[in-house]
Amino acid sequence: MSHLDIGAELFAIAATVCYADTIEREHPERKSEALELAELSCEQAKERAETLFNELWSNRDDDSYAAAQRVLARR
Fold first, then answer.
1. What is the rounded CA–CA span in Å between residue 49 and residue 65?
2. How far is the C-alpha of 26 from the C-alpha of 24, rounded, in Å?
3. Residues 6+ apart with CB under 8 A from 48
4. Are 13 and 50 in contact (CB under 8 A)?
5. Are 10 and 53 contacting, i.e. CB atoms less than 8 angstroms apart?
6. Which whole-number Å values give the CA distances from 8 to 37, 55, 56, 61, 67, in the listed order?
7. Per-residue pLDDT at 1
8. What CA–CA distance (Å, rounded) separates 1 from 5?
9. Which of 1, 20, 52, 62 is a plausible cystine mate for 38, CB 3.0–4.6 Å?
10. How far is CA 7 from CA 41, 50, 70, in A?
């Protein structure tokens, strides 16, 4: 997982909101359905982004870096 994945989720939220807004303006009769689906989609993307943020800070980077330094020191 990476910063790019988090950015993709944020982009998905922005694109979803923009599209729902477009539907609301161009097809007012479909407003409630568009908003309902947009809200569901955004909630799911938010959950995925929160998971990615948690994974970003819960990693083994310190252990990996220390091991790499030990290997390089023995060269």
1. 26
2. 6
3. 9
4. no
5. no
6. 19, 16, 15, 23, 32
7. 56
8. 6
9. 20
10. 16, 12, 34
Q: What is the rounded CA–CA span in Å between residue 33 and residue 63?
A: 49
Q: In which residue are the tokens 């990615």 written?
A: 52
Amino acid at 67: A
For the chain, 75 residues long, give each residue's pLDDT as a single digit of tens. Answer: 578 999 999 999 999 999 999 999 999 999 999 999 999 999 999 999 999 999 888 878 888 899 999 999 998
pTM of the full predicted structure? 0.75
Residue 36 CA to residue 19 CA, distance in Å, equals: 12
Quickly count: other Cβ atoms within 10 Å of residue 31's Cβ: 14
